[in-house]
User: Fold Agamous-like MADS-box protein AGL6 from Brassica campestris.
Amino acid sequence: MGRGRVEMKRIENKINRQVTFSKRRNGLLKKAYELSVLCDAEVALIVFSSRGKLYEFGSVGVERTIERYHRCYNSSVTNNRPEESKQNWCQEVAKLKAKYESLVRTNRHLLGEDIGEMGVKQLQALERQLEAALTATRQRKTQVMMEEMEDLRKKERQLGDINKQLKIKFEAGGHAFKSFQDFWPNSAASMMAGDPNNSKFPVQPSHPDSVDRNTEPFLQIGFQQHYYVQGEGSSVPKSNVACETNFVQDWVL
Assistant:
């Protein structure tokens, strides 16, 4: 006995409706799988039950198939309706042009140009815009000045620290120079008491024939011009002769 023809209408019995859904759903998913395998087709199947439960099948992934569908649909719409697409682009260009003209006009108004035809309300709105812009500009200027002042204070502190370090180094150098000054006379005296030939400062001894060898030598500093007196033996500096004469006179007296 064959199956009878099923009437295409909603099944009122809830249990029978659920059983029919399960059977036909499984058959539909099976048919979609067979179609993708046998015919090498890209198949995507999405089913929602009456309770909102999702059942899906995709031979290469449902999302990928849906994206491909959107691309094909948009391309077909564009190709089938070139006049409508052109009209949309013309409208978009007109909107952009109107917006550009409005911005240019607003810029001129802010600069004080082309305000002769403006009404009271428009002028008041422009005044509020200018006051807001002026307030924002002053706030930004104050902020920049405060930041610059803070930078200058930091530089001042850095220079003060460097000045203190240089002052400490200078005071240390001054103590070293004072110690050198205290050390210099003793060093000079010891150099004069030593061998005059090894000393860096030449010591001129007295004449060996007229002055005692134990006489303390003197330090010759600077340039002295000597005049030589011709004698029978060797020439003797005139300054030395004068010194010897004075020394002999004092010794006789």
